Amino acid sequence: MRYIISIDATRCTGCRICEMVCSLSHTGACWPERSRLRVVSEETDGRIESVPVLCMQCEVPACRLACPTGATFEGGPVGAILVAAEKCIGCSACVWACPFGASELDLATRVAHRCDLCEGDPRCVKYCPTGSLRYLPEDKLAIAEQRRKLGVLIDLQRLIRG
Ligand code: SF4
Ligand code: SF4
User: Fold this and answer.
1) Which of 1, 38, 81, 151 has the smallest set of CB atoms within 10 Å of its CB?
2) H-type helices in the chain, by residue range?
């Protein structure tokens, strides 16, 4: 069964612990800029609003369709959308294709990366102090709703930024 990390942005305080534990877990260093999820924060009416952005594990992943080398593929123990580093040429096609902005090139290696669900034990979920992130089994309706909400939030953030 597929799983997804569900986001409740109303609980997110913007503390960025998730970014820190993600980078520590994947690179061995506490380096949030190399995290595989991104906390986007904006000020609205004097309040800071934060939204964690990460891979939504799409059924038909735009990143995989866009990848010219086959470096992006679905696999691993939980069927996450992974990157075969040896095949990645750093072209950014997957970065541009993702509707959520959830793929990036790693700052240090220039290889694409995105959330790999930590082989079924996502560290961001484990250490988020507010319950903003939850690891839930596939429920197509709930996942569709998650993607819709995240898309709306990201569109709003883009509008605010101009
Ligand atoms: S750890 Fe949780 S509350 Fe803190 S920024 Fe990440 S998602 Fe938001
Ligand atoms: S950056 Fe790498 S993974 Fe992304 S589309 Fe290009 S070759 Fe594929």
Assistant:
1) 1
2) 17-27, 62-66, 93-97, 123-127, 140-161
pLDDT > 60? residue 160? no
What residues does 136 pair with on adjacent strands?
A: 4
Strand segments (E) across 31-70: 38-44, 47-53
Report in angstroms the alpha-carbon separations of 86 from 60, 110, 128.
23, 12, 32
How far apart are the CA of 87 and the centre of ligand 1, in A?
32
3-state secondary structure of 119: helix
pTM: 0.87
Q: Ligand 1 pocket: which residues have CB below 6 Å?
A: 12-18, 39, 50, 52, 128, 130, 132-133
pLDDT confidence bin for 157, thresholds 50/70/90: low
- Nearest bound ligand to the CA of residue 70: 2
**3-161 CATH fold:** Alpha-Beta Plaits (3.30.70)
In this structure, which residue's CA is closest to atom 2 in ligand 2? 88
Given CA atoms 11, 157, 7, 55 in this order, what sign does their dihedral have?
A: negative
